[in-house]
Amino acid sequence: MTDFFSHSVSERLQQAVELIGQAGKMALRAFQQISPEQIQYKGPQDFLTQTDTEIEIYLKQQLRQHFPMDEVLGEETGGELSDSMWVLDPIDGTANFARGIPHFCLALAYLLQGKTQFGIILDPCHQDLYIAQLGRGATLNGRPVRVSATETFSVASLELGWSARIANARYLSLLDGLMRAGGNVRRGACGALGLAWVATGRTDAYLELHMNPWDCLAGMLLVSEAGGAINDYLAAGGLERGGKVVVSNRALAGQIGHIADVPLKISHD
């Protein structure tokens, strides 16, 4: 009898890496040919392109073909929650993608019984493949990665994501707190890559007051498996309704958590 466990996590990971590689080629071709008439809007500052939908449909079809008992939740076409499920963002950083800025990615995570088992982020423009597997560490293009060792805000590089779902006053208050602490704050408009950059030590922390699960689950596992600190997004109902995301290297975790008013935990040595 076929059930959720007829395919192992490692089998799913192997297949997912192959599929996201193919989807990344689709995204890169489309990016090189993007034109203004292909850009649509789901709402204020919420971009949508034909490529978002095409890649999501492709990945959903492929995942269902290989793992028919799994559910697939995507940003553009939705889906159902399940004990064995995939969560995907076909293009994170669509505003960058649509404007010809090579800072976007594809993100895919697999959850089993409510826990993220692995996450994959592909930056097709730079051929950077980030992979994290629960309890097995994080890699960039096959090489282990680790969060930064930055200890003070005076030399810290931070990223603060923005969401139209949150009042500007709360965003500006958080920005003010980070700047008063002495941090250099930037925004790259691609949350999944922002998280991946914390895992690799390029950035010391990433904060956003509201992220959907397809934007953050893969990246949060990357940070955790790279030795960083993260908030308990899933326990706070993030899979169902999204929520606050705060990740940091170890040394700054206490201060970052205090400024963001959320406890951070380190779960991997």
Described by strand count, sense and barrel closure, the largest sheet is: 7 strands, mixed
Low-pLDDT ranges: none
Strand order of the largest sheet: 3-4-5-6-7-8-9
Structural class: alpha+beta
Relevant CATH superfamily of the largest domain: Fructose-1,6-Bisphosphatase, subunit A, domain 1
The level 1 CATH classification of the largest domain is: Alpha Beta
Q: Determine Rg (CA atoms, Å).
A: 18 Å
Instruction: Please indicate the count of domains.
Output: 2
Percent in strands: 25-35%
Fold-level CATH name of the largest domain: Fructose-1,6-Bisphosphatase, Chain A, domain 1
Which shape, going by the Cα principal axes?
globular
Helix content: 25-40%
What do the pLDDT scores average to? 92
Distance between termini? 39 Å
Tally of helical segments: 8
The CATH architecture category of the largest domain equals 2-Layer Sandwich
Organism: Affinibrenneria salicis
EC number: 3.1.3.25
Enzyme class: hydrolase
Catalytic activity: a myo-inositol phosphate + H2O = myo-inositol + phosphate
